C-alpha cells in the first residue's frame, strides 16, 4: 500500500483552513497531521513530520511562514493572497537554496476561476476595452483580490503582445477612486457584500459589442479539489509553480 502524504495546515481555524482540514481528512492517500493557527508554534509542523503544508493565512504573514517551511524542507501549497512579482522572486530565491522543495502558489483554486483566466487571456487581444469587477464577502482583508490582480496581469500581458495600449477612457475627474484601482493598467473594482463568497466578472468592450466572463464560487468547497490536487502533485514538483493551471490538462 502507498504511504500517506502527511499534511499540515497553517491558518487551520480560518474559513479556508477549516475546509482544508475537512477535505484532507476525507481524502484518500492523505493524513492530516498538524493544525497551526495564529499563536500556535510552527514547529508543530516539523514535530508532526508534515511533508506538505497548506497555507491559508494572511498576506502579512504568509512570506514569513514560507521562509520557515522552505528552510525546514517542507513542500507548500499556498492559497493566501498578496503575491506580486517581487514576492514570487523572493520565494524563488529561497527555493534555489533548497532544490528538493516544491511550492505552489495559486491565486485561485476553483476550476472555473482558472478556466475564466485562461478564457480572459484569449479574449484580451481582441478588445480595446477591459475592466474587472471582483466581488467578495465583507470579511476579506485585502483589495483588490489576488485573483483579480493576477487576472489583470495576464490580461495586460496578452494586450501588450497584441499591441494594445490602455483602454480608452476620457475621465479627467476621478473622485475618491470611483474608477477603481489600476493594476497593470487594467481597472479593477472591488465589491464587498454580505451573502457573497468569491466572484469575478471580466468585461471586454469592442465595436458594437461586449463580452462578459463571470465566475462564481458559491461555496468554499469549490476550492477543495484544486487544493487536494496540488497537495498530491507538489511532492513531485520541486521549485516554484504559480497557478493551478500548471497542474491541469488545459
Ligand atoms: N487561492 C484561493 O483559492 C483562495 C485564497 N483565499 C485566501 O486565503 C487567505 C485566508 O482566507 P480566509 O480563510 O477567508 O481567512 P481567515 O481570516 O478566515 O483565516 C485566516 C486564518 O489564519 C490565521 N492566521 C493569521 N496569522 C497566522 C499565522 N502567522 N500563522 C498561522 N495562522 C495565522 C488567522 O487567525 P486570526 O483570525 O486569529 O488572525 C485565521 O484563523 C486570504 O488571503 C484569502 O484571500 C481564500 C479563498 C480561496
Ligand atoms: O478571500 C477570499 O475569500 C478569496 N481570496 C482569493 C483572492 O484574493 O483572490 C481567492 C478567492 O477569490 C477567494
From TrEMBL:
GO terms for molecular function: 4-hydroxy-tetrahydrodipicolinate reductase; NAD binding; NADP binding; oxidoreductase activity, acting on CH or CH2 groups, NAD or NADP as acceptor. Residues 5-109 form the Dihydrodipicolinate reductase N-terminal domain. PROSITE patterns: DAPB. Pathway: Amino-acid biosynthesis; L-lysine biosynthesis via DAP pathway; (S)-tetrahydrodipicolinate from L-aspartate: step 4/4. It catalyses: (S)-2,3,4,5-tetrahydrodipicolinate + NADP(+) + H2O = (2S,4S)-4-hydroxy-2,3,4,5-tetrahydrodipicolinate + NADPH + H(+); (S)-2,3,4,5-tetrahydrodipicolinate + NAD(+) + H2O = (2S,4S)-4-hydroxy-2,3,4,5-tetrahydrodipicolinate + NADH + H(+). Its EC number is 1.17.1.8. NAD(+) binds at residues 11-16, 47, 79-81, 106-109. It is found in: Cytoplasm. The keyword Oxidoreductase applies. Keywords: Amino-acid biosynthesis, Cytoplasm, Diaminopimelate biosynthesis, Lysine biosynthesis, NAD, NADP, Oxidoreductase. The active site is at residues 136, 140. InterPro entries: DapB_C (IPR022663), DapB_N (IPR000846), DapB_N_CS (IPR022664), DHDPR_bac (IPR023940), NAD(P)-bd_dom_sf (IPR036291). It comes from the Bacteria. The keyword tRNA processing does not apply. Belongs to the DapB family. Catalyzes the conversion of 4-hydroxy-tetrahydrodipicolinate (HTPA) to tetrahydrodipicolinate. This is 4-hydroxy-tetrahydrodipicolinate reductase. It comes from Actinophytocola xinjiangensis. The gene is dapB.
